[in-house]
Amino acid sequence: MTAGPIAFTLNGTPRTLPPGTSPTMTLLDWLRGPAGLTGTKEGCAEGDCGACTVVIEEADGARVPVNACLTLLGQVHGRSLRSVEGLRGRDGGPHPVQSALAEADATQCGFCTPGIVMTAWAHAREGGDVHEALAGNLCRCTGYRPIVEAFGALRDDDTPPAAPPSAPPTRLEAPGQVFHRPATLDALVALRAAHPDAWLLAGGTDLGLRVSERREVPAEVICLSDVPELRGLEPTAVGIRIGAAESYRRLLDACSADLAFLPLAGLLRRLGSRQIRGMGTLGGNLGTASPIGDALPPLIALGATLRLAGLDGTREMAVEDFLTGYRTNALLPGEVIRDVFIPRPPEAALFAAEKLSKRPDQDISTVGLSAVITMEGGRVAWARIALGGTGPRAARCAPAEEALTGQSWSREAVEAAASALEAAITPLSDWRGSAEYRRIAAGNLLRRLWHRQAEAA
Amino acid sequence: MDALPRHTGPGASLRQDSALKHATGEARFADDLPMPPSLLHAALVLSPVAHGRLAPIDLSPAFATPGVVAAIGPGDIPGRNDIAQPRRAQEHMLAEGLVEYWGQPLAIVVAETRDAALAAAAAVRPRIEPLRPVLSVEEALDAGSFLFPPMVMARGDAAAALAAAPRRLSGTFQANGQEHFYLEGQIALVVPGEDGELTVHSSTQNPTEVQVMVARVLGCDHNRISVQVRRMGGAFGGKESNASWVAACAAVAARRTGRPVKLRLGRKQDMAATGKRHPFLYRWQAGFDDTGRILALDATMAADGGHSVDLSGGVVFRSVTHGLNVIDVPDVTITGVACKTNTVSNTAFRGFGGPQGVLLMEDVTHGIARALGTTQEAVRERNLAGGENNAITPYGQALEGDLLRQVWAECRDGAEWDRRRAQVDAFNAGHEVVRRGLGSFLLAFGISFGIMSMNQAGALVHVYEDGSIRLNHGGTEMGQGLFIKIAQIVAGVFGVPVERVRITATSTAEVPNTAPTAASTGTDLNGWAAQIAASTIRTRMAEQAAADWGVTPDEVRFEEDEVFAGNHRTGFGELAHRCVQNRVSLSSTGFYKTPGIHWDPAAMKGEPFFYFSYGAAVAEVELDLLTGEHRLLRADMVQDCGRSLNPSVDRGQIEGAFVQGLGWLTCEELWWDAEGRLRTLGPSTYKIPGSRDVPPVFNVRLLEGAPARADTVFRSKAVGEPPLMLATAVWNALRDAAGADRLDLPATPERLLMAARAGRR
Fold this sequence. Notes:
heterodimer; A: Ubiquitin-like (UB roll); five-stranded mixed sheet; five-stranded antiparallel sheet; B: Aldehyde Oxidoreductase, domain 3; Aldehyde Oxidoreductase, domain 4; molybdenum (chain B); Ald_Oxase/xanthine_DH-like (chain B); Xanthine dehydrogenase molybdopterin binding subunit (chain B); iron ion binding (chain B)
């Protein structure tokens, strides 16, 4: 693989960056610094406020808002981007989206506005719930009412995406840094074996913080996004197979289109924001193995499996076995996560994917509970109940499952299971919630399943 | 039909002057200004412990990082190492000898790049011998550790009246702090000039204080320091005093290196090192009768001031004077204290002690209502100031009981209180684990700075020969729409479209000795000053026209971009040109000071407020009893804006303030660990409201037909802070839903779950 310069399209114009440009510079720092484009703002540098939102223009016309603060230059190589400066109307004046927000009184101090404009421009094409679109953009002044109203009236401008430059997968180099973009699984596995300390970069929504906030300069990065085996999503009769480096955005689209996976879609809509889901990946969530990874409890409850690839080939493993402890997993040196298979819940099973957080949108879980419960002859045939935020790792709760199995689906049986759950978990106290709250709330999430069923009946 | 001329003067709903520039990204904030040649970047070394003895700091490790140009400790400050408010005890800009909070600035590192400065600052290892930190306001209160003597507002004999009251009740609760979370963090860019001059671009509400602090730490005359601010990316009080020390640090670095220096705090450093809304602890005892009439109250409101005074005096003053809010209590003692703790020094935040103060009577009336088996609304109405009760506050200023009743009645009716109360009760009867609640709130908020000398403002208006107008004044734009409102006032004076008025950056070089843009007074003060300046020029222009036309100046009218008298008529620009030709000055300052206000701090008596702003709100919530999750389903509010200068800007202030108050009272939680380290340092852990948290039914009304009775500019009223307090209705609604006696704030899902469980036991 040869070295080459970083190349991408910005606001419709191909850009080739000077040799030696750090591939791990954040897109935000580059825009505001060398590019001299200060319309994109830094509000938090942790991917939460959305002031730095820019849009990736996909070849299929999709507009993917992302946080420029978490996006590294090496990741946008070969892509087409648009920042607020690149948004203009047909007459060269303000774009209708910009005028709409200004005329709606949707700006006060204006610092969040460029990011909201970019989110709006993407939303005008992508559609969907306005609050879901806005979850990744904070405004401290307006109280959002005028923004929400303006969003409700946006129209797609029907402009085709700007083409990305021809930028073959390559090695991006800067003094003291190599940013690998392998294009095959074999190349990836070989690189991983050769560079065990390299950062494995999937979406970068977690790893990117080490650059944006902690200002780290990694020597070796292996970017996963060009590896075909790690991309793509395949819905089948038995479930969904998704590449480890495929975005949550694509998984959410697939789950939203499939009745059986609607509970998972509901959870994914609360995972980060559109900006985070545009970059973030299931592989990243699994690799990080955080006890509060949003996606982990439903994967465990559904009995998801993953395939790990290494020099010796591929092995398969259940997600619940893959997570071994607090931020640790079963990856062997030289291995990478290739893909994940999410089995379809059995027909007529109760499938729930619950999440508790301080704020409904774009917040990290205080507690997560997912359950798949099947009934036979009025009794629980089997139950898989998985928890996050209640111990060192996301895991099943066997005592609760046992308490339910063989019982009728009744208030008393659920109460017994919830009590068993409360007794079995070992949550911590932190800023998201006390141990006591987590314990009670986790049990109550289970109780709530019964109440909801009872109310629906 | 001819198009009517577009009305752009006072009362017109014009949009924020920079709205389109915000949307296109063209609006420049301090960090967006073109970088001056040879710019350096500064970073701060912050204390890693909350309390300890600090050895003289060794800055040599900083120089191991390539690109480092200077490292500055307290001994390198050329002037005074003091960022305290005037006439207050010294507060160090860089700690000396003692560190008193986690995140306290210890040193400044200056480098060619921001990354180098940050890396070098991180390499400095201060030696600190840890001392036990005091982290709870309760501990400081019980130990009597105060930042200044208690403020006691008293009327009658509360102790005797309590003893004689037929019924008594006591309570205690806490309201925690709030991070401003302005989207644009603290920043200053300092550019040295000739003869020791410095130009400071600061994101500040208080350019004059930046000038004073910079001059103080440099030991130079104020006339060498020029401070400019075109706009801030939000402030909310967080840039009233905290912006000053940030700019002062950058100024010391610029003086030391002789080069331009930018200091921009990243979000985590900003949240660690800058003050927040004061947390409060409340203890009260009330005496009342079976009709719900409150006869006596003895209350203590203890603010957590943090490690230093900063603006805590003003915050406690406002909390005490707003402690009764709209309620009349005949015999009352309210004691306000600012406790000293080893946390960041808490500071101004929209409402400035008012939001904390008005919580007191909500807890009291809620408690009494539960004790008597009646509603909080009934208890409030029974004790409402004015009418059958006394309208005079314990400090001696009268509330307008008729306006209070009008605002409440309009809000109550608009919210369909009776119908919805029944609806909520019916819903609750049919649901086991989901509860709805209804709550209300009524506000009287005093407008004026508590420090009398701050109630002044200046403006500078020029009319150029072509009839274009340049407007400058002491107020700063932080998104609140001040600039457009004042431009509307000036446009109104000259009878010209607002487009003729050029809005310019606030500058201490143009208008000196200004008050901060704070306390909701920005328009009241600066609007009058601009009106006076413009009127002075208009008078001169009218005299010129009168002389030209042989009429009296009184006959000259300025309307629709033209000037008229009898059959005479000329364009505004033509008259300006004619004035210049005839050597008439078309430039004027304007100066305004609020009339009639006075305060005796020893007696805690006086009439400190020019007028009161009134507002009312009704909120409906839904609460999940299993998890404590809750949603605000609907909010209705009526806010008194007098005769609004710009109804759409005012509506934006009301909505934004309400949602900010909602955040303070519900989801925004600052969390310190046992060592006094703030662990919620960014939006990933500190959750301000998102768009979904705004109520789907959000009815905002400005009180109509109620011009201010005080002589305010165009009879408008201030609107920046009061509506934040209307969110208090949500607290009451949540308590209604939870059936809880005590619900501390913020009412997170956890607190609600625990309160609901306690309430049901």
